[in-house]
């Protein structure tokens, strides 16, 4: 039974200077400092449990999101956790429909990232109070309760509450076996860590051969800034991994629609499974055009890490604009909104391959994809979850990878809690790490 009233919400600006090593760099984000607006919820309950929630940001963007979290705080403070999760749809709606904050969304951008941080903390707390990892809390929830967490506004033309319930009911068959399968073998993953755009070739080679030794069979490479450079790097990586292993490419929104088609036609010889974010994440019809043009080359379009909300996903699915759907645990309004996208993907039979390139994203999204396999999709066909090998040491319950697969988390919660010392050292600008860096830069 959930209990307690939220007595305190604190939010921290936590940044890691990843840009110094080019980690996480791509054709658009050339100097990313992996960061998080990190929310801590405390209650008046005697168990002392806290809810931790993050949203992934980059460097200076964090302080803007922190501000938005503080603006949302009155919706959470002094609320009983039982009332929040007992009417989770209503609570989600209240947060996203704040009469003044909605104007700077709605359900998109900074205010939606902040919503995700707050709701991720609520889910963490709920799962902790139930003594279960989040994926298991979801798996054990009956279909009615699950759908009661979803706001179906704007998507009932493709998915009604009844249909969602029906999908979940049908997927009850074989659920136990799928859970056992996950516990024994984990969820298949791919790695992005070898080929960030800012890495020199020597680093790429070294990381690639290490990853091969560790059993990785699926690799993603960043492209999009310079065609000749892309050809060289893609050739290098394809030669290293051989013709059989899977290669994905990610352009991080760099191209116009015709440019995307031309560029990818030139990279087709390296046999990419997908091109990710070829153009603006808002351009649904553009993605559809690219999808259609690249299908004969055997290249699918993947997108989602910067899709604002369920409405954009709905339209991408309706327009047949993508072959792989990439949910993000912090871009959308937390588990609540992601549930609706997982269910729509199931209806349209599009495989979900979550985005995890950021701090904490692997920790979070593994829960959602395990739930998806056990309770929604019931399939591993064409599916894999992204993995990046950065910053896990700062989490209290870091991801466990075995033979290139995510092993199901066993600890209660959403794996969002960071180590106290890591938060302290990386808080911006007063943490020790930043104090040193800022002094060295003469600030
Ligand atoms: C700035 C980030 O590292 C992005 O490059 C990253 O999320 C990337 O798009 C990915 O797919 O992992
Ligand atoms: Mg990407």
Question: What does this molecule look like?
Answer:
- By secondary structure, this protein is α/β, with parallel strands linked by helices.
- It has a domain at 168-420: TIM Barrel.
- It has helices at 61-72, 81-86, 88-96, 109-130, 134-140, 143-147, 161-170, 175-185, 201-213, 227-241, 257-267, 284-294, 310-318, 334-348, 361-377, 420-426, 432-440, and strands at residues 6-15, 34-43, 50-58, 187-191, 218-222, 246-250, 272-276, 300-303, 324-325, 385-387, 400-402, 405-407.
- The strands form three sheets. Strands 5-6-7-8-9 form a five-stranded parallel sheet, covered by helices on one side. Strands 10-4-12-11 form a four-stranded mixed sheet, sandwiched between helices.
- The chain is globular.
- The mean pLDDT is 98.
- It binds 6-deoxy-L-galactonic acid and magnesium ion.
- 6-deoxy-L-galactonic acid is lined by residues 24, 26, 29, 32, 192, 250, 252, 305, 355, 357-358, 386.
Small molecules held by this entry: 6-deoxy-L-galactonic acid, magnesium ion
Instruction: Give the beta-strand count.
Output: 12
Query: From the alpha-carbon coordinates, what is the Rg to the nearest angstrom?
Result: 21 Å
The N- to C-terminal Cα distance equals 50 Å
SSE arrangement, N to C: EEEHHHHHHHHEHEHEHEHEHEHHEEEHH
| DSSP helical segment count | 17
């Amino acid at each position: 039974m959930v209990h307690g009233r939220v007595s305190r919400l604190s939010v921290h600006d936590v940044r890691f200077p990843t840009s110094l090593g080019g980690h996480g760099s791509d054709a658009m984000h050339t100097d990313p400092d992996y960061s998080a607006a990190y929310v801590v919820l405390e209650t008046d309950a005697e168990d002392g449990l806290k809810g931790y929630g993050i949203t992934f940001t980059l460097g200076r963007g964090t302080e803007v999101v922190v501000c938005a979290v503080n603006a949302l705080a009155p919706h959470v403070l002094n609320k009983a956790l039982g009332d929040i999760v007992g009417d989770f749809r209503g609570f989600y709606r209240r947060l996203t429909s704040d009469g003044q904050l909605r104007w700077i969304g709605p359900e998109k951008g900074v205010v939606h990232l902040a919503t995700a941080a707050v709701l991720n903390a609520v889910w963490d707390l709920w799962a902790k109070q139930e003594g279960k990892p989040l994926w298991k809390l979801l798996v054990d929830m009956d279909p009615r309760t699950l759908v009661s967490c979803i706001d179906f506004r704007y998507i009932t033309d493709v998915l009604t509450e009844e249909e969602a319930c029906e999908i979940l009911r049908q997927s009850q068959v074989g659920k136990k076996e799928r859970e056992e399968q996950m516990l024994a073998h984990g969820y298949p993953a791919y790695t992005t860590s070898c080929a960030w755009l800012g890495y020199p070739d020597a680093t790429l080679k070294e990381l690639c051969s290490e990853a091969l030794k560790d059993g990785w069979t699926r690799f993603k490479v960043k492209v999009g800034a310079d065609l000749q450079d892309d050809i060289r790097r893609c050739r290098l990586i394809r030669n290293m991994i051989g013709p059989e292993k899977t290669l994905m490419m990610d352009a991080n929104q760099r191209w116009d629609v015709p440019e995307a088609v031309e560029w990818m036609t030139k990279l087709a010889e390296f046999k990419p499974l997908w091109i990710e974010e070829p153009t603006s994440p808002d351009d649904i019809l553009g993605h559809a055009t690219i999808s259609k043009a690249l299908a004969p080359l055997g290249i699918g379009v993947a997108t989602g890490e910067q899709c604002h909300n369920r409405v954009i996903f709905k339209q991408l699915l309706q327009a047949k604009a993508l072959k792989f759907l990439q949910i993000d645990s912090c871009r959308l309004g937390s588990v609540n909104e992601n549930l609706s996208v997982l269910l729509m993907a199931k209806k349209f039979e599009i495989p979900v391959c979550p985005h995890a390139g950021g701090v904490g994203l692997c920790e979070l999204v593994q829960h959602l994809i395990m739930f998806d396999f056990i309770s929604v999709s019931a399939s591993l066909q064409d599916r894999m979850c992204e993995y990046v090998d950065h910053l896990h040491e700062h989490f209290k319950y870091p991801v466990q990878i075995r033979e290139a697969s995510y092993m199901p988390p066993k600890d209660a919660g959403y794996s969002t809690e960071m180590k106290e010392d890591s938060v302290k050292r990386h808080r911006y600008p007063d943490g020790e790490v930043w104090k040193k860096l800022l002094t060295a830069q003469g600030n």
